[in-house]
Design brief:
Arc Repressor Mutant, subunit A, alpha+beta, two-stranded antiparallel sheet, elongated, DNA-binding, 97 residues, transcription regulation
Length: 97
């Protein structure tokens, strides 16, 4: 048995952050599109900009996404390879059923 409790704690925290439908949708959408801004996400998801911003902050704090400023807008992309692999695994399997 693996005694590296820190690794399990980090993985559990990643799963906690991803365990929300809007955040899963944001990460999956970013993986499909590559990068996009809050306005694009708002149009796709149909939720208020403030709600998306709150979810983006949680994803950023967890190191799952990063933002790059381009003038007045920020374009977000997935930067966590672990989160990328996990979300791809979750949604690639579900599309084949």
């Amino acid at each position: 048995m693996d005694n590296n409790i820190q690794r399990y704690n980090e993985t559990a925290e990643l799963l906690k952050v991803l365990a929300h439908p809007v955040r899963l949708c944001i990460v999956n959408g970013l993986l499909q599109k590559g990068r996009c801004n809050v306005s694009y996400m708002q149009n796709c998801l149909g939720v208020p900009q403030s709600t998306i911003s709150q979810h983006l902050q949680k994803l950023r704090s967890a190191g799952i996404i990063e933002g790059e400023r381009n003038g007045l807008e920020i374009n977000y992309s997935v930067c966590s390879k672990t989160a990328e692999a996990l979300v791809k695994l979750l949604f690639n399997d579900s599309t084949e059923e």
